[in-house]
C-alpha cells in the first residue's frame, strides 16, 4: 500500500465530521460511512472514469468565502477541510438533468427508469433515441475487459453516436464478465445453446468437466486465466463441485 | 494466536447441520442449501467429511483475481470477496479445492468468510467434526458431554 494512503484528512460530509484516508475519492469515503451517493459508472474494482456524472456532490471550504462547486465524487479526492453536501438543491437538480438525459438515451432501461423516478422524472423532456438499446456508455465493460487483460472491448465513433463493441472478435475470451458487470444489462449473451455460449456476435465452445459434465468455461477463458496467473492449467479443468468432493476424500484420507 | 476452522473427518456423520446453519446465515430468503459454503459428504459409501474454504496462505483464487477483489481480512484471517469483484469467475475455476462458487441467482461470487469471526457451521456441529479454535481439539472422549446448540436454534436465526 502506498504510504500516502494511510494519511488522514478531515472532511465534513452532510454535516458529519469524518477522518478520511487521503487519496480516496469522496464517493468511496462517503460509502464507507454509510452515506449513499448514486452512481452508475463507478465500480470499486476499476479505475474511476467519471462518465455518467450521476455522483455529483457540492463542495466548499472554509476559505472559499461561500463559494461552492459541483464535482463528480467518484473522481474527486478528499482534501483537508473539505465540506461536502451530497443532497443539496443544486445536487438534486443536476442529477435530475443527468437522469432526464439518460432516460432519453435509454428509454427502455428499467434501471434508469427506476433511478429517474426516484428524482421525480417519469418521462424524459428530451427527444427519445430511436431503436435504443440500454447502453449508457458507462464503459464499465471496457474497463472490466482491460482489467482481465483481454482488452477486447472498445468505444467506437464519437459524440452521440459513440458505442461499445468488440472490434477484433478473436480478442474476446467469452468470459461474460462484461455482461454480468453491466449496470443496465445492455450486453446480451446466450448460455448452453447447443452446448455453446454466444456473446458479442461470436460463438464459443465450452469445456465440460469430465466426470460431472458441468460446463466450466470457454477454452479461451481457461487458457487466458491460466497463463495470466501462472497457475497450472490442470487447476482450471474441473468443476468446483467435483473438486469439492475430491477434497472431501483427501480430507478423510489424511485423517486415517 | 488467532482462531481457525478445524475439520476432523472421522467425527463427521454427514448430518448436514453445518450446511443448514451456513445457508441460514448466508443466503437470503428463501434459504438455499444448494448454495451453502460448507458441504458435508458421504462418498464411496463410507467416507464422510465436511469441506470448506481452507483460507490458503498462498491462495490460487487471490492469485488469479484480476482486480484484487479477494482480500485477507486481518480480523478474521479469512479471504473475503469484496465489491471489487467483476464476476470473471476465474477464482471459481482456479481453486484446487472447489471452495469458491458463482451464485447465478444473485450473480455474485460466494465463499466462506467464517461468518465474520463466529462461524455458524462449527456452532451447530453436534460431533465437533468442525471446530472454531486456536488449535485442533484432542481426541474426543465418547463419554464427554458436548455442548452444542441444538439445530432448532438455527431454524430461528434471522436470514440475511
Ligand atoms: S459514478 Fe461518478 S461519474 Fe459515474
Walk me through the topology.
The complex is a heterodimer of chains A (256) and B (160).
Chain A: E1 8-13, E2 16-21, H1 26-32, E3 56-60, E4 69-72, E5 83-85, H2 89-105, H3 110-118, H4 140-148, E6 154-156, E7 163-165, H5 177-181, E8 189-193, E9 196-199, E10 202-204, E11 207-208, E12 215-217, H6 219-229, H7 240-255
Parallel strand pairs in A: 1-5
Antiparallel strand pairs in A: 1-2, 3-4, 3-5, 6-7, 8-9, 9-10, 11-12
Chain B: E1 4-7, H1 17-26, E2 39-43, E3 47-51, H2 60-64, E4 70-72, E5 79-81, H3 90-94, E6 100-103, E7 108-111, H4 120-123, E8 130-133, H5 151-155
Antiparallel strand pairs in B: 1-8, 2-3, 4-5, 6-7
The structure holds FE2/S2 (inorganic) cluster.
Characterization of this structure:
- The complex is a heterodimer of chains A (256) and B (160).
- Chain A has 256 residues and is of the alpha+beta class.
- Chain A is 29% helix and 18% strand.
- Chain A is built from seven helices and twelve strands.
- Chain A has helices at residues 26-32, 89-105, 110-118, 140-148, 177-181, 219-229, 240-255; strands at residues 8-13, 16-21, 56-60, 69-72, 83-85, 154-156, 163-165, 189-193, 196-199, 202-204, 207-208, 215-217.
- A five-stranded mixed beta sheet of chain A has the order 2-1-5-3-4, with helices on both faces. Chain A has a three-stranded antiparallel beta sheet with strand order 8-9-10, with no helix packed on it. Chain A has a two-stranded antiparallel ribbon with strand order 6-7.
- In chain A, a hairpin with a 6-residue loop joins strand 11 and strand 12 (215-217).
- The two termini of chain A are 44 Å apart.
- The relative contact order of chain A is 0.09.
- Chain B has 160 residues and is of the alpha+beta class.
- Chain B has one domain (4-133): Alpha-Beta Plaits, CATH 3.30.70.20.
- Chain B has a two-stranded antiparallel sheet with strand order 1-8.
- In chain B, strand 6 (100-103) and strand 7 (108-111) form a beta hairpin.
- Chain B is globular, with a radius of gyration of 16 Å.
- Chain B starts with a strand and ends in a 5-residue tail after the last helix.
- Chain A binds chain B through residues 43-46, 144, 147-149, 175-177, 180-181, 216-217, 221-222, 225, 228-231, 235-236, 238-249, 251-256, and chain B through 7-10, 39, 41, 43-44, 47-51, 60, 63-64, 66-69, 82-90, 92-101, 107.
- The site of FE2/S2 (inorganic) cluster has 12 residues of chain A, from loops.
- Residues 39-42, 50-55, 72, 74 of chain A line the site of FE2/S2 (inorganic) cluster.
Amino acid at each position: 500500500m502506498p504510504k500516502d494512503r494511510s494519511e488522514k484528512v478531515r472532511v465534513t460530509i452532510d454535516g458529519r465530521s469524518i477522518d478520511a484516508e487521503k487519496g480516496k475519492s469522496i464517493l468511496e469515503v462517503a460509502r464507507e460511512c454509510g452515506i449513499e451517493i448514486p452512481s452508475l459508472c463507478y465500480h470499486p474494482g476499476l479505475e474511476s472514469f467519471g462518465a455518467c456524472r450521476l455522483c455529483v456532490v457540492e463542495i466548499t471550504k472554509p476559505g472559499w468565502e461561500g463559494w461552492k462547486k459541483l464535482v463528480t465524487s467518484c473522481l474527486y479526492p478528499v482534501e483537508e477541510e473539505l465540506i461536502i453536501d451530497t443532497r443539496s438543491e443544486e445536487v438534486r437538480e443536476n442529477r435530475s438533468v443527468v437522469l432526464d438525459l439518460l432516460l432519453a438515451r435509454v428509454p427502455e432501461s428499467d434501471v434508469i427508469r427506476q433511478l429517474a423516478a426516484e428524482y421525480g422524472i417519469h418521462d424524459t423532456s428530451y427527444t427519445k433515441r430511436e431503436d435504443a438499446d440500454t447502453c449508457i456508455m458507462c464503459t464499465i465493460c471496457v474497463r472490466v475487459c482491460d482489467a482481465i487483460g483481454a482488452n477486447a472491448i472498445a468505444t467506437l465513433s464519437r459524440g452521440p453516436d459513440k458505442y461499445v463493441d468488440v472490434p477484433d472478435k478473436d480478442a474476446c475470451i467469452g468470459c461474460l464478465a462484461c455482461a454480468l458487470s453491466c449496470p443496465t444489462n445492455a450486453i446480451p449473451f446466450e448460455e448452453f445453446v447447443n452446448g455453446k455460449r454466444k456473446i458479442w456476435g461470436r460463438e464459443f465452445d465450452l469445456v465440460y468437466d469430465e466426470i460431472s459434465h458441468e460446463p466450466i468455461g470457454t477454452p479461451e477463458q481457461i487458457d487466458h486465466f491460466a497463463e495470466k496467473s501462472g497457475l497450472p492449467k490442470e487447476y482450471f479443468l474441473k468443476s468446483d463441485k467435483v473438486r469439492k468432493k475430491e477434497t472431501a476424500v483427501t480430507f478423510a484420507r489424511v485423517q486415517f | 494466536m488467532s482462531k481457525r476452522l478445524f475439520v476432523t473427518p472421522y467425527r463427521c456423520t454427514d448430518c448436514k447441520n453445518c450446511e443448514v446453519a451456513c445457508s441460514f446465515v448466508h443466503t437470503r430468503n428463501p434459504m438455499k442449501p444448494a448454495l451453502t459454503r460448507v458441504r458435508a459428504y458421504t462418498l464411496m459409501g463410507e467416507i464422510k467429511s465436511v469441506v470448506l474454504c481452507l483460507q490458503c496462505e498462498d491462495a490460487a483464487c487471490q492469485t488469479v483475481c484480476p482486480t484484487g477483489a479477494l482480500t485477507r481480512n486481518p480480523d478474521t484471517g479469512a479471504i473475503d470477496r469484496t465489491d471489487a469483484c467483476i464476476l470473471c469467475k476465474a477464482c471459481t475455476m482456479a481453486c484446487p479445492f472447489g471452495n469458491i462458487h458463482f451464485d447465478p441467482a444473485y450473480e455474485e461470487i460466494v465463499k466462506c468468510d467464517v461468518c465474520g469471526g463466529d462461524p455458524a457451521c462449527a456452532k451447530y456441529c453436534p460431533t465437533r467434526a468442525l471446530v472454531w479454535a486456536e488449535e485442533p481439539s484432542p481426541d474426543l472422549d465418547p463419554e464427554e458431554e458436548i455442548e452444542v446448540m441444538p439445530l432448532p436454534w438455527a431454524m430461528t436465526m434471522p436470514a440475511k
